[in-house]
Amino acid sequence: MRILHIISQKPDFTGSGKYVQEMIRQGRSRGHEPFLVAGVCADFAVPEELMQPGRFRVIRFDGHDLGFPVMGMSDVMPYPSTVCSSLTKLQIIEYRTAFARVIGSAIADFAPDVIHSNHLWMATAVAREVAPHLPLVTTCHGSCLRQHRLCPELGDSLKGALRGIDRIIALFGQQKTDIVELLGIDSDRVDVVSGGFNELCFYAEEDASDSDAVQLLYAGKLDSSKGVPWLLRSLKKVEAPWHLHLVGAGSGPEKDLCLELAASHGQRVTVHGVLSHEELGGLMRRCAVFVLPSFFEGLPLVLLEAMACGCRIVTTDLPGARELFAEPHPSMVRMVELPDLETVDRPYRADEPLLEQRLAEALQASIADVRNRVEPDQDYVRKITGPFTWEGIFDRIESVYRQAIGDR
Asked: What does pTM read for this prediction?
């Protein structure tokens, strides 16, 4: 099968970029032929181990194919980006024109059997308009639904094309409901297939930590929507010895705030920057508790990666997290109840102290379990992580491809 993959931002080690990388790797291992079209910043180089020469096309932002920074699917990206709600009408036209030209040339040269795009947003709408004759499968990663709420006029202009997608992949059940309501399409055309994690990078081994301080880890963007400032403030309330590792990148004032709060803890916080899958897996194996204090997520697969490496989990009770951990565990997973939010990814200022207290209490309890040598429940870990290996996930993705082709 010849598969044209499309992503509107660089295929890096985070979020939807990581997903695209795995789709390409898994597809190639099954004998499929991949081709990649990606929107990238000016200095980004497609990894040679990911794509063969001549098997990818890029649309470069930053004054090359497009005169503005790469458009982020979230308003805060870990690199300079353009916020969707700030796009001018001329920029939208330029974006659609550039993507239409490159997608069209890729289709002419590669002749794909199926297109697999990412995000129910602009690049996918362009793909549908350029190639109405080809089967189109689109994975929703959640951030596109957020943009539909933040940019309703732009979103409404895309819905006609998006309703023409053959099959849509939702990462969890509640997301499917949101997609059906947003686009007004038949629910039978939306398949629920989660993402997965790489067993070769994320696995447990004997605990080698001899530090008195319990090692905590956060991995993700350094910004407020991910809850990083509230995490760093809540740690002021945690009395037990701890050391926090911050992994990820950010940009602008949001990143500056996170780094300032991290510095206020002195040597109790280590800032690592961006790590590869292998490096992150190694750090997870040295940590005892993984914390995700986010206010908005799709399906947070980083929680599975951390659990597979032996970490206990502290996470806000987002729909994706609730779906992953539908069967609760008294010590392996602690859910932090979120107060009502002012926007889709920000709490009311008056509720911030309440959130910090709840997060501190959950962290204190998990740290106490580690210090009291409460053994991790390995049966629970295997039960939760087992269904999410990429090999099994791609079996289901292949079925979606075949159905999209068969429906034609």
From this structure: 0.80
